[in-house]
Structure formats: C-alpha cells, structure tokens
Fold:
Amino acid sequence: MSRPKTRTNQRWLLTLLLALGLAACGPAPEVVGTAIAQTEAMEQTLTAGAPTATFTASPTNTTTATPTPGDSPTATPVPTDTPSPTPSDTPEPTNSPTPTVTSTRPAPPPPSATPTNPPPPPPDFVAIAKDVRSQVDGIGGQIDLALRIGGFDCQQLVNSYEYVVARHDLTLPPDVAGPYATYQAGINVFIDKVHDLYNDCVFILGAPYYHFIPKETWGLARIGVNDSRDLITQAIVEAGGIP
Structure:
C-alpha cells in the first residue's frame, strides 16, 4: 500500500472534522476558509518533508495443520471366530437309595467280664522229683533181686526207665532253676549207665528165647541207679523239700 494515499485520506478527515467544529460553533465563513487553507498548507508541508516509503508484502507462513490423535481413523479389529462350546455329556442322575430311618436305641451295656480260669500253678518240682526218684529206686530193687534169684521182670524195668526219661525236661518257674539243674544231672547219669540194661530188656521182650544179660551190664546199671538217686535227693533238698 502507498504512503501518499494515506496522507490524502488523513487530510480530508482533518478538514471534515474542522468544518464540523466550526459549524457547530458558528464562526464566520472567512474563518472556515482560513482553516481550510491552513489545513491544505499543513498537508503540503507533511507531503513534501516526509520521504515516501514503499512496503512490499512478504509471503506469510502457512501453518500446516497437525492432525490430532482424534482425527486419525481407529482400526476396528476384525472379529475372530468364537469356538462353539463343545456339548458335554451330562451324567444321568443315579438312583440314590433312600436312607432308611431307624429308631435309635441306647446301646446295651457291655457284657460283664467273664471270669477266666486262673493259670494252673507251676508243677510241684519236689513232688515230681520224688516220683522220679521212686522209679529209679524200683530199678535198683529189680537189679538186687536178679542178683539173688537170677532173674527179674523186664517189662517193669522198661516202664520205670521210660517214666524217668520222659521227665527230664520240665517247665518250672525261675526260682527253682538251681535245684532243677541238679535234678537233670541225676537223670543224665541214670540214662548213661542204665541204658544198656534197658536195651537188653527190650530185646528179651521181643525175643522170649533170649535170657542172658552180661554181668557187667548189671553192675554198671546198679552204679547208675545209686549216683542218680543221690543227685535227685540233693535237688529235692535244694528246693526246700524233705528228702
């Protein structure tokens, strides 16, 4: 835009304002004319003294609109195939047994404890030892009779011998362990020295025609009876018995 055009516009505007002011105050026409002439002189002075400047419009920067996050289209996700639910087998209801209502009765009292028979008392060691000693003495008497008359009853000797041997092992309380050991020692002596006579009698009973028993067998058996009787008697005394 040029500078002179602007000054002209200003001049006319100033002139108009002065005219209106004078009209309002009512001055004489000559005053108005003088004011207009002064205005034109001032305008010429301003025009002549002020250099004329030319303005060149420079291009303005065009602002590029920046897209806002809301302006961008939102990608809509593609729907995925939802797997169909697999039908499950519903178990068929089972026939549950109907609970049976039973009458609740108080439990009967426990049966009274049945009295048990007391354990049998341990065997009377002294009595057993005396019985065994009696059988040993019987064999000794048989041997003495045979030495006097030359013979005796073999069946009785066999029975007495087996009776003594069968009572070698006994079940006894611990308090008679000492006398019991002495008692077994007496029976061991009896078996060791009377066994040959016992075998001869067994043979004679199976073969009646044989009647001879060696003298040595008689004598050894008699010694065995005496030694066995002494030990068994000692065991009876150790157990507190009367011999």
